[in-house]
Automatic annotation (TrEMBL):
This is CopD family protein. InterPro entries: Cu-R_CopD_dom. Keywords: Membrane, Transmembrane, Transmembrane helix. The keyword Transmembrane applies. Residues 48-149 form the Copper resistance protein D domain. It comes from Pseudomonas zhanjiangensis. The chain crosses the membrane at residues 12-33, 53-74, 86-107, 130-149.
């Protein structure tokens, strides 16, 4: 395996974990939890699910720019000569990172506080905000992968 292929594979795996994880959470786990669990159990489940998923997202958040910059140098000899879709990818990455940090740093601790004080309506409101931001991030991720996948030559 060449260094380019290894870096490329890592880059794709990190994108897959992040975007695929959000897709599963939003499209599968969320409706299943709503239809089977009462608010206290549902909020506790989400707290644990997000805590575990975000550990993987942290890995993806670090691996994507490291491998992305590696690919930039291996394939395009730097930022300036890279095609437009790579610039779009970097811009969308920054937007996705900002939304992820908002949920991780501001909203997840609020959800933890609500669950530990058994404030179920308050917890439901925070979970609603988390759902919205993760939904937006999922759309950005899907857009990014579509932009990356429709590069010239394919
Ligand atoms: C600072 C952040 C990033 C940089 C510098 C970067 C850079 C790159 C580069 C240089 C390539 C290879 C292009 C080629 O060889 O033709 C690539 C491919 C790709 N990247 Fe990124 N990337 C970043 C973030 C992301 C993110 C956040 C995602 C998705 C969540 C993503 C998804 C992809 C995909 C799916 C490809 C494969 C596209 C293809 O070759 O068809 N990237 N990226």
């Amino acid at each position: 395996m060449t260094p380019y292929a290894m870096t490329y594979a890592l880059h794709l795996l990190a994108a897959l974990v992040w975007v695929g994880g959000m897709f599963f959470a939003w499209m599968v786990l969320r409706p299943a939890a709503v239809s089977t669990l009462e608010a206290p159990a549902r909020l506790q489940l989400w707290l644990e699910v997000l805590r575990r998923f975000f550990q993987w997202v942290w890995g993806a958040v670090l691996i994507l720019p490291i491998t992305g910059v590696g690919l930039l140098h291996l394939h395009f000899a730097g930022f300036d000569s890279a095609p437009r879709y790579v610039h779009v990818m970097m811009g969308l990455y920054i937007a996705m990172l900002a939304l992820f940090l908002r949920v991780q740093v501001l909203l997840l601790p609020e959800l933890r506080r609500a669950v530990s004080s058994e404030d179920w309506p308050g917890g439901g409101a925070v979970l609603g905000q988390i759902r919205r931001w993760v939904g937006i991030n999922l759309l950005l991720g899907l857009l990014l992968v579509s932009v990356a996948g429709s590069r010239p030559g394919f």
